[in-house]
Amino acid sequence: MSTSAASPTPSTGESHHSDAHGASESAVHVQDLHKCYGDLEVLRGIDLDVAPGEVVCLIGPSGSGKSTLLRCLNLLETPQRGTISVGGYTVTDPELDVDAMRRRVGMVFQQFNLFPHLSVLENCTVAQVKVLKRPAAEAKRVALANLERVGLNEKASQRPAQLSGGQQQRVAIARALSMDPELMLFDEPTSALDPETVGDVLAIMRGLAADGMTMLVVTHEMSFARDVADRVVFMDGGVVVEQGPARDVIGAPQHHRTRAFLSRVLDPTAVAAPEQADDADAAPPAGDLTD
Ligand SMILES: Nc1ncnc2c1ncn2[C@@H]1O[C@H](COP(=O)(O)OP(=O)(O)OP(=O)(O)O)[C@@H](O)[C@H]1O
Ligand SMILES: [Mg+2]
User: Fold this and answer.
1) Under a CB-based contact definition with an 8 Å cutoff, are residues 45 and 33 in contact?
2) pLDDT tens digits for range 210-258
3) In angstroms, rounded to a whole number, what is the distance separating the alpha carbons of residues 27 and 50?
4) Which of 58, 64, 94, 236 is most buried (CB neighbours < 10 A)?
5) For the whole model, what pTM was predicted?
């Protein structure tokens, strides 16, 4: 768990620190966020706060808007309504210095999005040099330290295609860490991996959490969420349905939609029940995650 560490304060000279709503105390502050694609309302009034050093796992069915929410946080998507602040930057401020804000946020995707034509080391140095303007030697030193952290410094000269999926995802994490982010966003980082490599990636993420990194993690790994998250947020249909400590949300969910989702995730062979059959007396999820 990671309750004690504070994230570094944003450097001075970049002036988009938030004032309203106590946002500057949160690593992430989202209020009344709405996002539509045409007629499809994907986010329907999301409120979410992540404290510095907190690990929040975001769970929910396919299509519930989890990726869209993460993508709004660093302006890969523009929301129609609501406010977002990240690391003291008001993301929804039209005057925002987008690049300065994005430098504070590391993002790791399901598909690793490494540059195939660059070596592992170059993947981890290129943005440091181009975006942070670090001298090449310093960028290399930082990259190697982060590759060591994910256990891959001996792969530094290889190309991504020469690595397993799990190794590529560890490189993607090292690349994100090399930018010294205040906040790491993970969007299903293990769901494209072979089962035997999932554990390595989760172990790296556990280590990051233990080191005090602020993390917002979309995941279907319920045991990770239960063990590592300070808080679990369950989304369905573009709203936050339920949130709280993992032992409550996963161990004793209050809402029937949370229960229906968890029973499907914990027993993937179960046939999804029709919506009207989801009554409040539905059985709690299988007991294999209780302590
Ligand atoms: N660029 C887009 N244009 C139109 N519709 C989109 C776009 N991106 C997402 N959507 C729709 O928004 C809804 C939410 O998508 P999103 O990717 O956020 O879901 P998710 O919770 O991440 O699901 P999954 O668990 O499958 O990754 C879906 O219905 C999706 O089809
Ligand atoms: Mg998604």
Assistant:
1) yes
2) 999 999 999 999 999 999 999 999 999 999 999 999 999 999 999 999 9
3) 6
4) 58
5) 0.85
Q: Which atom of ligand 1 is nearest to the CA of 61?
A: 25
Distances (CA, A) of 65 to 61, 155, 219, 253: 9, 36, 13, 20
Degrees (nearest 5) of the Cα angle 232, 236, 240?
50
Domain holding 58: CATH number? 3.40.50.300
Ligand 1: does its nearest atom lie under 6 Å from the Cβ of 65?
yes
Ligand 1 neighbourhood includes 68 CB (under 6 angstroms):
yes
For ligand 1, is residue 42 a contact (CB within 6 Å)? yes
* Distance (Å) from CA 139 to ligand 2 centroid: 31
Sign of torsion, CA 206 207 210 215? negative
Q: What is the pLDDT of residues 43-86, one digit of tens each?
A: 999 999 999 999 999 999 999 999 999 999 988 999 999 999 99
Domain that holds residue 234: 28-111+183-266
In a domain, 116, yes or no: no
* Helix orientation angle between 120-130 and 136-149, rounded to the nearest 10 degrees: 130
Atom of ligand 1 nearest to the CA of 238: 14
19 is a domain residue: no
